[in-house]
Model the fold of this input.
Amino acid sequence: MKKKALAVALLLSGTLAFHGQAFADEYSNGTIQGEALPNVVHGVNQQASGSPKAPWQDASLTQAAQAANAGNTGNSGNGNNGTGSNASVSNSSSNAVSSSESSTQGATTSNAPLNVQNGSTTPTYTDSTIGLGGASITMIKGEQSGQQISIVIESNDGSLIVVDGGLKTNAPYLAKYIKDRGGKVAAWLLTHPHEDHVGALAVILEQQKKEGHPDYYNIDPGQIYYGFAPLAFYEQYEPAHRIPMMKEIMEDLAQYDSAKRHESSPAGTSFTYGNVAVEVLNTPYSIPIDSGNNSSVCYMITINGKKLLITGDLPYEAAGKLMEERGADKLKADIVQMAHHGQHGGSFAFYSAVNPRYALWPSSQELWNKRKDAFTEDQESYTVALTKFWMNKLGVEKNFVMADGNWVLK
Ligand SMILES: [Zn+2]
Done:
């Protein structure tokens, strides 16, 4: 069934810019021909660079990944890629690339612009085929051209659950979006303290304390769930430019209503709003490689029986640890938020466990278009093409990409 869908998707993509022959060429360039699944590039690099080998790494590898590891030619990956939140650039919302791959265009897709106070014309695409029972998942691009994670889930009873919130510059857009839907957030889930995730919330919390702030900041952020590694740990292992944002959000949260603050909730913590149930999957890991991303807290969100896995920027190492802690079965989901915007995130073994039908890519246009340099010697750059390859291999039926605009799944 999935293979058939994949074949159809590939067939359809032949007429469009992405995939088609170009895509095929990239995957037969010798580097990964023979399906030497390069999800192990990360691990190889880690050992080569002298980093300590964490105990969960071997245990978390599936047979497939081990086989791939054996076939790996020793590409040097970079565990701490710095694809940043401020990636900038192209902002063409007319791109139909991703929807083509997923064949989401047509009857279920509309592009009526969100009615935002400042007149933004960011297109909003809707796919109504998921079966969320009156609930919706919205991945917000807002007015951003960089990458971020800003997802709002609305339950069938109108409760709002926000995931991360995105860049600082996304704060006005997100606040207006929430305000337009009643202004009250039920639960706000943070993954990790990088600016493209917690920036918007920091701005909202800070603006609320300032005199004369715009009215759209008068919203209730609700119950905030978060968990970070210790600041001292980040200070030791994160790039210095990351630290101010971490301190900022930690201070903002420390000043937030303690009755609505839920720090490092134990794995298994769960709560329900309408037909949306949220489960916290892990407390943050302190891993001295890519430490901010590796401290991502993951959430399994069940909506009308359909599961959405939120991964934040979960890299290879933490993905392995999460699989070991929770068991692969526990990670099975219908929809996955692609880890780390679709590059240097998760592993093939991890996504095999999730085995999603639908993929949410919180990827900028710039990142999404990265292809040619994915397997050059400059391995520290981009692996998004590799991740696409994994998703194709797993038979994902639809890929929704933030670069296109806002995406609403129903
Ligand atoms: Zn990120």
User: Anything to note?
Assistant: DSSP finds 15 helices and 15 strands in the chain. Residues 194, 196-197, 313, 341 surround zinc ion (CB under 6 Å). Residues 1-119, 372-380 have pLDDT under 50 and may be disordered. The chain has one domain: 2-409.
